[in-house]
From TrEMBL:
CDD domains: cysteine_hydrolases (cd00431)
Domain spans labelled Isochorismatase-like: 12-196
Segments passing through the bilayer: none
InterPro entries: Isochorismatase-like_dom, Isochorismatase-like_hydrls, Isochorismatase-like_sf
One Pfam match: Isochorismatase
Protein name as catalogued: Cysteine hydrolase
GO molecular function, one term: hydrolase activity
Signal peptide: none
Keyword Nucleus: no
Length: 207
């Protein structure tokens, strides 16, 4: 795994979609990611990276999916397949268990919660870029869910905007090992500056 010397004054952790529907045992999507998540020890690694970032004063930016409400997508001319699934299964419902933060990863006062994203990019139609620029952050460590959708799209968008991008292979998950391989071994090397694991990322942040 790549080891990178992070300048903590210019680095931020982007925590994407740490919601109950993904991460809680009772979440609607947990059964779909559970095998991969357990294999990589996802929940422990997310907690370790977030706590390390706070410990060394690296800002954590929460990048949440838009919470579902009845009729949310009825006016959309072109809802994408993921949005149709969200609507059908009422995923990440507002003011409900599934749309709440996974308790071990709730934001703290020192964290930044950005505007909810509508599809797969944490940057499109949100204030994420502005919040990063205002903090002087130009290196982003992207973690959370899912590896081949929101993580990949957010990380690619960051690269296009000129950010240095790190992926952490065991701080994300997908619906299958094949999708994880596609995200990290096939697609990741085409845009990410660093592809690493939690152990190496934590060591680098603490250096």
């Amino acid at each position: 795994m790549t080891v990178y010397d992070y300048d903590r004054r210019r680095t931020g952790v982007l925590l994407v979609d740490p919601l109950n529907d993904f991460l809680a045992d009772e979440g609607k999507l947990w059964p779909r990611i559970a095998e991969v998540a357990r294999e990589v020890d996802l929940r422990a690694h997310l907690s370790e990276l977030v706590s390390t970032a706070r410990e060394v004063d690296v800002p954590v930016f929460y990048v949440p999916h838009h919470r579902w409400t009845p009729g949310l997508y009825e006016s959309f001319s072109h809802p994408n397949p993921s949005q149709r699934s969200v609507d059908k299964h009422q995923l990440f419902a507002q003011d409900a268990f599934g749309g709440d933060w996974y308790p071990p990863l709730r934001p703290e006062p020192s964290d930044t919660v950005v505007v909810q994203h509508w599809a797969q990019s944490g940057f499109a139609n949100t204030d994420l870029e502005m919040r990063l620029r205002q903090r002087g952050v130009d290196h982003v460590i992207v973690i959370g869910l899912l590896a081949n959708t929101c993580i990949e799209t957010t990380a690619k968008y960051a690269m296009e905007l000129g950010f240095h991008v790190s992926l952490v292979t065991d701080a994300t998950a997908a619906y299958s090992s094949e999708l994880m391989r596609a995200a990290h071994e096939l697609n990741g090397p085409t845009y990410a500056h660093v592809i690493t694991d939690t152990k190496s990322a934590v060591a680098a942040l603490k250096t």
